[in-house]
Amino acid sequence: MTTVKTTGEDRKADIKRYTTSYRDEVDGVALYVRLAHAADNAAMKDLFLKLAATEERHRDLWAEKLRAAGAEVPPACPSWRVKTIGWLARRFGVGAVAPIVSRMEVAAMTMYDNQPEAVAAGLPAEERSHARVFRELGRPPGEEAVKDIARLEGRHRGGTGNALRAAVLGVNDGLVSTLCLVLGVAGAGPGREVVFVTGIAGLLAGAFAMAMGEWVSVKSSAEAFENQLAIEKAELEDHPEEEEDELALIYQVKGLSPEDARRTAERIIANKDTALDTLAREELGMSRNEVGNPWVAAGTSMALFAGGSFLPIIPWIFTGGFSGILFSVLITGAGLFAAGAATTLFTGKSVLFAGGRMFAIGVGAAAITFGLGTVLGASTGI
């Protein structure tokens, strides 16, 4: 038998929800006021006070709902967590607590999405705005500057360096994992054919796993970006003033004066052709060109891993036993040294140091698996 919730139960659930939301907003007001007091420049103080004013409107909304429901409004006392964060901000600076506040804001982004009173008052959009602002504040110092310099100075190869790093890691994964597999099996002494087939099986398994993992990763990122972009587009069409305010806040966080931030945001929002791309870049931290093609990523990952994996297997096509082990180590060792040397293009380290380090780690891991294979082979009578 289905029990229908009574009006009294509905009212009790609403009061509980209003009370929870009210206390959350009391915390929000107290947090931003404390951050404003801890801020070391006028622009940041102004930013936090504006955020506090927004939270005050949210708090007053829930207080009004409680009164309308005939419930008592709780005292506006912030939680111990907010008091602690405020103390840390005064003691160590706003930057020290920005990542904590950012996580809190991200967690609160969707808290109002299913509350009709909040949706009608525009609270979900404002909470997302706060989360994006604190994402900017929570970035490591100098991150934006480093990226901008990398784009301007070709010798830093910002984008190319990332692609090269991924390529080196893909080849290195294939080299090390397959060498360890081949020598682990060879240590048990099952014969050349078994070692060769095992190596090929490891190559295929690893290549397909890398391709699938890369495809899922890039595809998921692209879908998440498109979903966020659709939300951003709808907000831009329905609430351009709010998006302008949000951009202005972000540019204040980046160091512009309130006046310059406002003028910049106004110019961007006025140009509908570029506004969405700018909002995506500034608020989501991505652009359409950075999403990537999942099939290209999967194919590249598979090819790189397979290319590295094939080197340890080559000797076992022609020979076995000690000769197979020796040549497998020598060929793979050369590949590891070359992979390590390639990393110097984006690390600036010595070629001998980087290549030797990669060689030592890879061959050391293979020596361990060879020893384990030998012990297991002896104990099982292979």
Features of this protein?
17 helices; 3 domains; mainly alpha; Ferritin; 382 residues
Q: Strand pairing plus helix content: what structural class?
A: mainly alpha
Rg (CA only): 29 Å
Largest sheet: number of strands, sense, barrel closure: none
Give the count of structural domains: 3
- Overall residue-averaged pLDDT value: 78
* Strand portion: under 5%
**What is the overall shape?**
elongated
- Please give the number of β-strands: 0
Walkthrough of the structure:
- By secondary structure, the chain is an all-alpha fold.
- It is 82% helix and 0% strand.
- It has helices at residues 7-38, 42-68, 80-92, 94-108, 116-120, 123-137, 143-152, 158-188, 192-238, 240-253, 258-270, 272-284, 294-313, 315-318, 321-342, 344-347, 351-380.
- It is elongated, with a radius of gyration of 29 Å.
- The termini are far apart.
- The model is unreliable at 1-6 and 140-162 (pLDDT under 50).
Overview in brief:
With about 375 residues, the protein is mostly helical.
Strand and helix layout:
Layout: H1 7-38, H2 42-68, H3 80-92, H4 94-108, H5 116-120, H6 123-137, H7 143-152, H8 158-188, H9 192-238, H10 240-253, H11 258-270, H12 272-284, H13 294-313, H14 315-318, H15 321-342, H16 344-347, H17 351-380
Helix pairs in contact: 1-2, 1-3, 3-4, 4-6, 6-10, 8-9, 8-13, 8-15, 8-17, 9-10, 9-12, 9-13, 10-11, 13-15, 15-17
